[in-house]
């Protein structure tokens, strides 16, 4: 007697995981292209590469996706962009110098409020440099997905100015997290 051929359906979870990976790879690629466009700083390119590597690392992990920082403190223009569905990986930015300065202050305040207690700095100033004591506390900043750390990077891109020491310090600070 011959055994009947048994057709085994691919595991549903495996198919969903593949689809999810494709979707993530797509948005990460779009975001990475958007973030790199028009900003030639070496530090910025390194930060974007670190972020893309971080997203790739958590690609297969699951879990809830938190939003970084308080929405009430997020710069208003960034909140408008954040609420768009589907997410647009073009446009945005700030061209007016006065508006850029206000956005910068708002972004720094928002970043400061996201920090663990040990990294809380003075209101409106960049947080103190990352030290060994606070490295483990920084996990609260490592939020993945399209509502995660990428929103912080988009805000940084919008006030990008490679001649602004504060912007360079912010890029280095986020990279160190």
pLDDT < 50 stretches: 62-67
Overall pLDDT level: 76
Strand content: under 5%
Shape: globular
Structural class, from secondary structure content?
Answer: mainly alpha
- Please give the number of β-strands: 0
The string of secondary-structure elements, in order, is HHHHHH
Largest sheet: none
DSSP summary: helix tally: 6
Proportion in helices: 40-55%
> Quaternary arrangement of the chains shown?
single chain
Distance between the termini: 65 Å
Give the total of domains. Answer: 1
Question: Measured on Cα atoms, how large is the radius of gyration?
Answer: 19 Å
Explain briefly what this protein structure is.
With 177 residues, the chain is mainly alpha-helical. Helices cover 50% and strands 0% of the residues.
Structure description:
The chain has 177 residues and is an all-alpha fold. The chain has one domain (12-176). Helix content is 50%, strand content 0%. The protein has 6 helices and no strands. It has helices spanning 12-36, 42-57, 76-83, 97-114, 149-158, 165-176. α2 runs parallel beside α6 (165-176) and α4 runs antiparallel to α5 (149-158). It is globular, with a radius of gyration of 19 Å. The model is unreliable at 62-67 (pLDDT under 50).
